[in-house]
Write a structure and sequence with these properties.
Elements: E1 4-5, E2 32-36, E3 43-46, E4 52-57, E5 63-68, E6 78-80, E7 89-93, E8 99-104, E9 108-114, E10 124-127, E11 132-141, E12 147-155, E13 158-166, E14 176-177, E15 184-192, E16 198-205, E17 210-217, E18 228-229, E19 237-244, E20 250-256, E21 263-269, E22 279-280, E23 289-295, E24 300-306, E25 312-318, E26 328-330, E27 333-341, E28 347-353, E29 359-364, E30 374-375, E31 392-394, E32 400-406, E33 410-416, E34 422-427, E35 431-433, E36 438-445, E37 451-457, E38 465-466, E39 469-472, E40 478-488, E41 493-503, E42 525-526, H1 535-544, E43 548-553, E44 565-569, E45 576-577, E46 582-588
Parallel strand pairs: 35-41, 43-46
Antiparallel strand pairs: 1-27, 2-33, 3-4, 4-5, 5-6, 7-8, 8-9, 9-10, 11-12, 12-13, 13-14, 15-16, 16-17, 17-18, 19-20, 20-21, 21-22, 23-24, 24-25, 25-26, 27-28, 28-29, 29-30, 31-32, 32-33, 34-36, 36-39, 37-38, 37-40, 40-41, 42-45, 44-46
Length: 603
């Protein structure tokens, strides 16, 4: 998106003391100073996704370009154009991040294009064969990479507005322009949208008065169409400003020398339609000069101008309709204003104070009014040149960037963040199991601010968790709404909620505890003494000793004897052997008891 606006005032004062440190105010970031050594006012552009691009003429010659990717910091500036002084430079950026830079030197118009992620291509130089170049240049770039270029040239003693389309491959198309024979004034304007619609406007004298004129280019066309006159004859029109909406509708504002004092007029043009008769944008009786205009995507038309006493003012109307209602006037203005608007309806107006030392801004939310102006960079000196530049630009979401030339030949820039972070790569499981931890993740990103915090609410009464990647276990089965919230440093908050269905944990039987195997003592046969025992008693004694009675042998001569007892055994008494071992025995008659010997009488 190519932002449009201007600032004017006193000539630049170079080599001043370093600026006073400043802090952020009312949503504007603390100022950064990505370019130093500048010799004239900067220009700024903001892409639809939040890329920011700056350009400024360098004291040493050529121009310096600094760019910032969404959510990042400004890269070191890139010098273009060599050592030849460039009094003015303009910049544009498309949704892909492609950058187009145009600047003038004493003898030529120059255009350099940098595709996103690449280096600048060699510059296209348009020499003075078309006329000696003058102190004006404009540029726009669409999403296909086509560039709309406009400039002023002196030819045959007359100053002409000239414009052309440069194709994505760098080929210069047919150069169109204002009609010869009469000169244009020193101020004109150009805009181009993402689709390739383009519009350029200027004022040209008819020999008596200056008339506002414009030409448009349809997407894909190799050249601009035939110029048309917008303002009424018999009065002077000056200082045109153009605005172009994403849908191709456009509007041109200019200052008209009205009988009651200069006032701002506007003409509307729907895409593929005709320009309307002009309508006054500023109220009756309120002098307005140096108008600026922007089209918001919600159908509102936002205008601003310099009012009585050099103060700034703004007014909002509906596209194609007459303006009604009061204007908002700010008593701190001191020069021309810049205005930008976004597809959703956000808008911002910037202007300098009367001392030309501070940049002020007033913003509005979609459908609302402009709030009280605040200094964009409190305590930081700001200086402006008296020709057309873009001090403010806006992305599609409504975030804005403002620029100025500060002390000590620096370029200052401050960012206004009005949109919440984007919750990228949000990962929330659709299902889970009670008691089992699940993973949750998000990658919050913000084009203009750092992320301050990210938190998770799990909907189960437990405390919130912080971080971009967390884990959580639900205690019980059920359906839970999980909400992630990210907040940037400006306080803009984004939230998303997802539902997790948690199933009950499966019933698990208690574990079987396996202990060591039981210790059993090894039982052995302890052979007892069986002598003089009957076979029945010997058998019983052997059982008690974990032995077994084996073969029982009876001598033949005792086959018919009764009362036989064990006279010998096969295993010696006291022997320990395998449990159940057999012990063989031999039976015999029980020994007769020995008779006691008689004692002698001693006779």
């Amino acid at each position: 998106m190519n932002g449009r606006g201007w600032l004017a005032g006193a000539a630049l004062t170079l080599g001043l003391a370093a600026s006073v440190p400043a802090t952020a105010l009312a949503g504007w970031s603390a100022p950064a100073f990505p370019i130093t050594g500048v010799g004239n006012a900067p220009d700024i552009a903001v892409g639809a996704r939040g890329d920011v691009a700056l350009v400024a003429p360098a004291i040493a010659g050529g121009v310096l370009v600094a760019t910032r990717a969404p959510g990042g910091a400004f890269a070191p500036p890139t010098p273009l154009g060599g050592a030849t002084f460039a009094p003015q430079a303009r910049i544009a950026i498309n949704a892909a991040g492609d950058v187009a830079v145009a600047w003038i030197t004493a003898t030529a118009i120059h255009l350099a294009v940098r595709p996103h992620g690449a280096a600048f291509r060699p510059a296209l130089d348009i020499p003075a064969v078309l006329g000696s170049s003058y102190d004006r240049i404009h540029v726009g770039i669409d999403d296909a990479g086509a560039v709309a270029l406009g400039w002023q040239a002196v030819s045959g003693g007359k100053t002409l507005a000239q414009f052309a389309i440069v194709s994505p491959d760098g080929t210069l198309g047919t150069v169109g322009g204002s009609a010869g024979g009469q000169s244009v004034s020193s101020v004109f304007d150009l805009a181009m949208n993402a689709a390739g619609d383009a519009i350029v406007s200027w004022v040209r004298t008819d020999g008596t008065n200056y008339l506002a004129q414009a030409a448009v280019r349809a997407p894909g066309a190799s050249a601009f169409g035939t110029p048309v006159t917008l303002s009424q004859t018999g009065v002077n029109a000056t200082d045109p400003s153009v605005a172009l909406a994403p849908d191709g509708s456009s509007a041109v504002a200019w200052e008209l020398a009205d009988a009651g004092g200069n006032r701002s007029q506007v003409s509307y043009r729907p895409r593929d339609g005709l320009f309307s008769l002009p309508t006054f944008a500023s109220p009756t009786g309120l002098t307005s000069s140096y108008p600026a205009i922007a089209l918001a995507g919600d159908g509102d038309v936002v205008t601003s101008w310099t009012g009585p006493g050099g103060n700034a003012a703004t007014r909002t109307g509906a596209f194609g309709s007459a303006f009604s209602g009061p204007a908002s006037q700010f008593d701190t203005g001191g020069g021309t204003t810049g205005v930008a608007a976004a597809a959703g309806g956000h808008a911002v107006v910037v202007y300098a104070n009367n001392a030309n030392t501070t940049l002020y801004a007033s913003s509005r939310a979609p459908g609302g009014g402009f709030d009280a102006p605040v200094p964009v960079a409190p305590g930081v000196a700001a200086y402006y040149a008296n020709y057309l530049v873009t001090p403010v630009a806006m992305d599609a979401a409504g975030d804005a960037a403002a620029t100025w030339q500060g002390a000590a030949n620096t370029v200052g820039v401050s960012l206004l963040d009005v949109t919440p972070p984007e919750l990228r790569s949000l990962a929330v499981p659709a299902a889970g199991t009670a008691g089992t931890a699940a993973a949750f993740a998000v990658d919050p990103a913000d084009a203009f601010s750092a992320i301050a915090s990210t938190s998770w609410s799990f909907g189960d009464g437990t405390p919130a968790a912080s971080g971009t990647s967390v884990q959580h276990a639900f205690a019980a089965a059920g359906s839970y709404d999980v909400t992630v919230t990210s907040t940037d440093v400006e306080g803009n908050t984004a939230s998303a909620t997802r539902t997790v269905a948690v199933a009950a944990a499966p019933v698990v039987p208690p574990p079987i505890v396996k202990g060591p195997p039981p210790v059993t003592a090894t039982v052995r046969c302890a052979v007892p003494s069986l002598k003089d025992l009957t076979s029945a008693r010997a058998k019983a004694k052997l059982v008690r000793a974990h032995c077994t009675l084996g073969k029982v042998t009876t001598p033949k001569r005792l086959k018919h004897e009764k009362g036989l007892v064990v006279r010998s055994q096969s295993r010696k008494a006291g022997t320990r052997t395998t449990r159940g071992a057999k012990v063989n025995v031999t039976l015999g008659t029980r020994p007769k008891p020995k008779k006691a010997k008689k004692k002698s009488s001693g006779r």
